Structure formats: C-alpha cells, structure tokens
Amino acid sequence: MKTHKKPLTSQLSWLLALCLILAFTPSTYAQKITNYLEVKGKIAESESKDEIAKATVTLMGTNLSTVSNNEGEFALKIPAKDANKQLKITALGFNEKIILLPENLKKPLKIKLDYSIINLDPANLVAYTDAKALVKKVLNKRKDNYLGNETVMTAFYRETIKKRSKNASLAEAVVNIYKQPNANSKKDQIRLVKSRKDTDYSKLDTIALKLQGGPFSTLYVDVMKYPEYIFSPETMDAYTFRFGKISEINGENVFVIRFKQRGEVLTPLYEGNLYIGATSLALVKATYALKLDNTDEVNKMFVRRKPSDVKIKPRNISYEVNYREKNGRWVYGYSKADLSFEVKKKRRFFKSIYTLSCEMAVTDWQLAPANASWEGDDEIDEYIIMADQNLGFGDPEFWGTYNVIEPEKSIESAIKKIQRRLERSEDRASLGGK
User: Fold this and answer.
1) Which SUPFAM superfamilies match (predicted)?
2) How many CA atoms lie within 13 A of 211 on its CB side?
3) Alpha-helix residue ranges (DSSP H) falling in 117-189
C-alpha cells in the first residue's frame, strides 16, 4: 500500500477525554449592525412542500447572509436603511429566487423554490470526459475562481454533543475569521467575539466527550483552501472519479463528480460528491465521508485519550462545505461536520451512541485593510476546546445584532431547558442569600 499524506481528520483534532478544559480570551473586534430589522422565514420546495436545508439567503448589494437550518427556517438581521432591498435565495438543484422585502416583517416569510430544469450545454459535455482531470483543473483554478485578497469574515459557529437523543453539550459563538487567499500557504486565523456554552456531563454517563478544534473543525473543511487534507498529490491516485447527474445553481449547470477510495488502499480516505460549475469550473459545494473499514486507523485519527476499559467504534464521519458567488468570484460560506461513535465499557451489556456536530456560516465579510495582520494578537488556537464557563443562555438578547443560524426545534428546546435550569439556580442562590 502506498503511503499517503494524513487526511483532513488528523487536522480537525477531535478529542474523547475524561477531563480537559481550556480557557480563552474573547476579542473585542466585531462587525455590528447598530439599527437593524430582523427578517424571518421558511424555505420549502414548491411542489412537495418539503423544507430546504442549507439554502443561502443573501441581502442583495451587501455581503450579509445566512443559511436555513435543517427545518428550512432562517433569520437575517439587516440594517434598517436597507429595508427596501431584495433577498436572494439560492440552493443547489433549485432556481434562485429574488424577493423584495415586504413592509411588514413581523410575519415570517414563506418562500417556495422550484426545481431547476437543466439545460445541457453540449460543448461542455464534450469538453470534459475525464472526471479526474476535471478535478485537477478545478484545483489548479483556485487562484482565478476565488477571492485573491485577505478578508475579514464574521461567522456564527454551533457545536452540539448528544448521547443518543439527549443534548449533553451545546456551544455557540460569533467569531471573526482572518481568511487568507487560497493561493496563500498561510493558515486562516480566528478570533472569538462572543460565546456561550452549557454542558451537562451527567447525561454523558461516565465518559466526558469533548471536541477539540472548535471553529477550526469546520474551517478546515474548506476544500479550496486546504485541498491537501483530501486531494494531495500523493492521495489523488488513491481515488476513483466518475461523473454523476448534472445539477444547477445560480443559473449555471453544475457537474457532479463522485469520488471514492480505491479498494486496495487501506489508509482511511473519503468518498463523496464534488459540485463543479460547468462554466466557471469553481467548486460550489462538496459533501464527503470518511471510509470507516479500518477502525483502528480511524480511532488513531480521532481519539486522543480514553479510559483503558472503554472501546470506541466510529459509526459516521461526514463533512459538507458550500461556497457563495460575488461578482464572479467565490468565497467560503458554510461548512459542517458530523461524527458518531459507539462507546462501550467493559463489563457493561449496553453500548452508548455519541454524536458530535458542528457547523459554521459566514454572515458578513469585507476585504481586509491594506497591511492588516493578526500576527501576535490573541487569536484562538486550532486545538481549542470551547470553555465550559462561558454561559450566556439566560440572556434572551445575548446575540444582539449578530446574525446566527436559526436553531432547530431540538436545539431550541435544549436552550429553553438551559435557561430554566439557570433561572432555578439563580432562585436557589437568591433564597440562600436571605
């Protein structure tokens, strides 16, 4: 078997540990909207009425945007002065929709998207018959298709840990990302702006499961910035590539390239789909999962520390990244990681299933000022573990004017439970002080 460069998973640095807490210092820099309105809505398919997850909602003429959650819901805070602007809603496989904001924003918008009708361009179909060669061409065009300047991005990050269906840990943060151009070998940097977290380790039984990497765990899923974590020169030959069914986004045909690890390769690699603009040759979306056949090697990538009497088996490790187009150039917009592990202690009959999920959506961005740098400043470390003591769930106005990803019903329920628990704690403290 060939020796391959370590894949993305070794860089995400997930951690299963008994007890480990890192503290960090928030940054004071952020982009805030002083006088704002909030637009809420739900996005669904026009025919089936099914919710559309991860649709991008953008305030036209600005870089303000968000994504819909798994239930199709979104909320976008916009400057009051832009109340007469339009919203653009895009999702892979659907026609984009542009709507004028209504005068009354108190009522949530109901937005229906139509499936796109693919108009095949024979010239493009003839031009690309080798899927692997097309992927290489896309990687070589990173400098042309994506922003070539440093940017400062504001993003929202959410991280959850569950034991079966029970929420055991929930963390959320607004961060600033100092994003380097794809052609630049420098890594991106992150500053924490605002965060909150609550953990109930009693729901995790005797194992305290923790995620190392925080926002970096999603940032490193950016294939166009960090292609070497998946498609390095050494690993390209370890995959097979083939064309799938053509799709559409933003009015452009999109090639679907399916890739998977060759059967004779034992090193855990990936399989998934790449969505490539037929005209621009820009990667607009990627979904992929780690092959889990070699359990021992997968555990070496993810399990940093565990009790000797605990056996861990990975069940699912998958990723998604989406990009957004602005004036012919593409920028990183959203990414997600989902991991599931089966945990069993010796002399115990039952197994426990733990699920870790984290996602990050860019809500605003601007070109970085000339000669700007975060070198030497208090940016967070890529091995960070979100600190347990950052609690803000009791404050309904915690996020203020920052844009966030709308919580799904299960997360919304968890937040309400946390708020009630904090209120009870405050009441007991108040009674004890009398």
Assistant:
1) Carboxypeptidase regulatory domain-like
2) 31
3) 122-127, 131-140, 142-145
- One-letter amino acid at 310 equals V
Please tell me what DSSP assigns to residue 229. Answer: G
The H or E element that residue 358 is part of is strand 352-367
Beta pairing class for 252-261 and 270-277 = antiparallel
Q: How confident is the model at residue 127 (pLDDT cuts 50, 70, 90)?
A: confident
CA distances from 292 to 135, 230, 315, 317 (A): 24, 15, 8, 8
Q: What percent of the chain has pLDDT over 70?
A: 83
Give the whole-angstrom CA distance, residue 352 versus residue 204. Answer: 9
C-alpha distances (whole Å) from 332 to each of 79, 146, 253 are: 23, 9, 20
With CA atoms as reference, report the closest residue to 48 among 105, 93, 89, 86.
93
Query: Which residue matches tokens 């037929």?
Result: 278
Which 3 state secondary structure label does DSSP give 133?
Answer: helix
Q: Yes or no: say if 278 and 145 are a contact pair by the CB < 8 Å rule.
A: no
With a cut of 60, say whether residue 101 has pLDDT above it: yes
Give Rg (Cα) of the chain.
Answer: 22
Cα angle value 18/20/24 (rounded, 5°): 160
Instruction: Show the tokens assigned to 125.
Output: 């179909």
The residues facing 67 across adjacent strands are 56
* Strands 15-16 and 166-179, bridge-based pairing: unpaired
Nearest to 361 by CA among 7, 42, 76: 76
Whole-prediction pTM: 0.87
- What are the E-state strand segments in 182-269? 189-199, 209-210, 239-243, 247-249, 252-261
